[in-house]
UniProtKB/TrEMBL annotation:
InterPro entries the UniProt entry points to: Aminotransferase_I/II_large (IPR004839), NHTrfase_class1_PyrdxlP-BS (IPR004838), PyrdxlP-dep_Trfase (IPR015424), PyrdxlP-dep_Trfase_major (IPR015421), PyrdxlP-dep_Trfase_small (IPR015422)
Organism listed in the record: Penicillium daleae
Keywords: Aminotransferase, Pyridoxal phosphate, Transferase
Full protein name: Aspartate/tyrosine/aromatic aminotransferase
Domain Aminotransferase class I/classII large: 46-392
Similarity annotation: Belongs to the class-I pyridoxal-phosphate-dependent aminotransferase family.
One MF term in the entry's GO annotations: transaminase activity
Keyword Transferase in annotation: yes
Stored Pfam families: Aminotran_1_2
Length: 409
């Protein structure tokens, strides 16, 4: 029997989703939008009404095996580089969200006896799922004191004869750090030298709120790096605010990779809901998709300022590496220079002030000691964030001294 480790983040949030949660800062997506919001972003109300009315007459068969051609065409435009290696729609398949996309990539391409290298810290699925399938996993660790930057010499030292894949997350969950263009180029050089596949979870792309697209280090998709053995996954859940619209995708320049993933998908779901795909295609039209990203970029910048102000005000108790992408950050809480017990902190904070955060050591602590760290989501409503930060401020003033220090290594 396959032994799958407890998915700590989801278990933590689900087990505490009760009336005691007044202020949810455990989320990792931007403020959810409605279908009416999408219609308003489309601008031309008649055109939007006509677009949605077509759903009523659509025959609900399985649809194309790789997904809606219209949707895949719009997804492919997100990877345009103007070169002959632009992504064909035949090299994209749709999935119900990015988590299922990640699952299929790992399930279809790896097996017992293989070795993978995983950027760390990161989303637990990216290292726990390979382990559950009997794959040997090495964590490519980063540290706060080094700005969560990846060390290329460390990567080279982790490579083995059976290394099949390097797994990265850009922007990164839980830190909001990015892998810059020059670092991506260096990773590709290493992978090409050893014929290793690079798999990049890009679910927070293109929400890079703290680096300009004109910056020479602005991170491109891994698919634009000129290396065939690359895979990218993404969805509409995070940067596009549509977690309830279960549409994600797998994209690769390798037709072999896509064929293997299509075969694996056939065992689990056959195709994606055509209604979801239709709405996703509407979402990725230029006016709607760009409008969502612009809204969320503005929201992230405004809310990031609030969180940074809170951290500056309480610098004796907390610190972070300011996030560059995505609506999340990894904050370290200390007292007298020593990390507090983050699990006790999050438990007491929820009980006393109704604020839900994610404890770092419990939910991201598979390798490195993340004592004192919590993940905070700042992609929600600004007014609600202000109220939550006020509650957190009261906790620091009145209850923080009761939180025990960490006894971990």
């Amino acid at each position: 029997m396959v032994k799958i480790e407890l998915f700590e983040v989801d278990h933590w949030i689900l087990s505490r989703s009760s009336t005691t949660v007044k202020h949810n800062l455990a989320h990792s997506y931007c403020l959810p939008r409605s279908i009416r919001d999408l219609q308003q972003l489309a601008g031309d109300s008649d055109a939007a009404t006509e677009a949605f009315s077509q759903v009523l007459s659509k025959a609900l068969d399985y649809g194309p095996m790789k997904g809606s051609e219209r949707l895949r065409s719009k997804i492919s435009k997100g990877y345009l580089t103007g070169s002959s290696s632009d992504l064909s729609i035949e090299n994209i398949i749709t999935t119900p969200g990015a988590s299922l996309a990640n699952f299929l990539v790992i399930f279809a391409l790896l097996g017992p006896g293989d070795h993978v290298i995983v950027q760390y810290p990161t989303y637990q699925q990216l290292y726990s799922l390979p382990k559950s399938l009997g794959i040997d996993v090495s964590l490519w660790e980063t540290k706060k004191d080094e700005g969560w930057k990846l060390d290329l010499e460390q990567l080279k030292g982790l490579i083995r004869p059976n290394t099949k894949m390097i797994i990265i997350n850009n922007p990164q969950n839980p830190t909001g750090a990015i892998i810059t263009k020059s670092t991506l180029e260096a990773i590709v050089d290493v992978a090409r030298d050893h014929s290793i596949t690079i798999f990049s979870d890009e679910v927070y792309r293109p929400l890079f709120h703290s680096i300009s697209p004109t910056d020479p280090e602005y991170p491109p998709s891994i698919l634009s790096m000129g290396y065939e053995n690359t895979i990218a996954t993404s969805s509409l859940s995070k940067a596009y605010s549509l977690a309830g619209l279960r549409v994600g995708w797998i994209a690769s320049h390798s037709s072999k990779v896509i064929d293997l993933c299509v075969n694996a998908r056939s065992y689990a779901l056959i195709t994606v809901s055509q209604i979801d795909e239709y709405l996703a295609s509407f979402t990725l039209s230029p006016s709607v998709g760009q409008g969502l990203i612009e809204r969320n970029d503005t929201l992230a910048k405004r809310n990031l300022y609030l969180v940074q102000s809170f951290i500056d005000k309480n610098s004796s108790a907390c610190e972070w590496v300011r996030p560059v992408g995505g609506p999340i950050g990894f904050i370290r809480f200390t007292r007298s220079g020593k990390p507090v017990d983050d699990l006790e902190l999050c438990t007491a904070l929820l009980q006393k002030r109704g604020v839900l955060l994610v404890p770092g050591r419990k939910c991201f602590g598979d390798g490195v000691n993340f004592s004192g760290y919590v993940r905070l989501g700042f992609g929600g409503d600004t007014g609600e964030l202000e109220v939550a930060l006020d509650a957190l401020q009261l906790f620091l003033q009145e209850d923080y001294s009761d939180v025990p220090l960490s006894t971990g290594p």
